[in-house]
Amino acid sequence: MSKDLILRTGLTGGASGDLDNYPVADCETGKPSIAFVQGDARYDHIYDESEAGAESSPDIIIPDDNSSGTGAWVLTKVYSDNLVTVGTFTPEYYAVDTDFDSVSYAVQVGRYHKIGTTVHFWIELKTSSITVGSAAGAVRVKGLPETSKSDTYTAVCIGYAKRFSTYHPSKAMVKPYSKEISLYYRATNPYGEDTNLLYGDLDTTTNDGNTLYISGTYESAS
């Protein structure tokens, strides 16, 4: 017999892709299996020829053709529902205290992969016009696909920035329990504190608008 990895699409029920349908004659202690259930959850098991417990899915799975009273698949790890989600979102600038009258975009792209509670994302923004109005306060990027955890700031990467009028963003962080990214610049003083990018730092004087690429990883609240 071989201890090659067994891939299944279900746990119990006796269907051809279920773990309990795998023949006991091909099982031996230490044989691993991975079951992807309905495409959104993963269960890892190891076969144990001495396991004598009653079947209790997903913890203990007994092959349907096993009548000996011992031998079962024993759960070793569960990966959360929504194991992998791939999607898009719509990022946008906004001013925290009073928002812009309007912001139009030539490029406004957000893509993400969510694995368990870990979110990997990529943002591309390029403005075509901005009507400032009575905008005030720090400028942020909002619209992330998942709310972040409540107990931590998460640094992410600014890969490219162009056409910011006063200061260019050099650092970015996902705010706790939010779908927002704070943008920061470092003043000339090398010992100074990173400072929030302000609404006025978005260049409104040219058709070749602000360009910003951000990518990173953060942990979602659920």
Your description of this structure?
By secondary structure, this protein is an all-beta fold. It folds into 2 domains: 6-79, no CATH class; 84-219, no CATH class. It has strands spanning 6-8, 32-37, 41-48, 60-61, 72-79, 84-89, 92-95, 102-115, 118-131, 139-142, 154-162, 171-174, 180-185, 195-196, 211-219. Strands 6, 7, 8, 9, 10, 11, 12, 13, 14 and 15 form a 10-stranded antiparallel β-sheet that branches. The mean pLDDT is 88.
Quick recap:
This protein is mainly beta and 222 residues long.
Structural class comes to mainly beta
Assembly type of the chains comes to single chain
Domain count, please report it.
Answer: 2
Largest sheet: 10 strands, antiparallel
| Fraction of residues in β-strands | 35-45%
Question: What is the overall shape?
Answer: elongated
Task: Please trace the helix and strand order, writing H or E for each element.
Answer: EEEEEEEEEEEEEEE
Helical residue percent band: under 10%
- pLDDT averaged over residues: 88
Q: Please report the number of helical segments.
A: 0
- Report the count of strand segments: 15
| Radius of gyration, in angstroms, nearest whole number | 26 Å
Give unreliable regions as ranges: none
**Head-to-tail CA distance between termini:** 41 Å
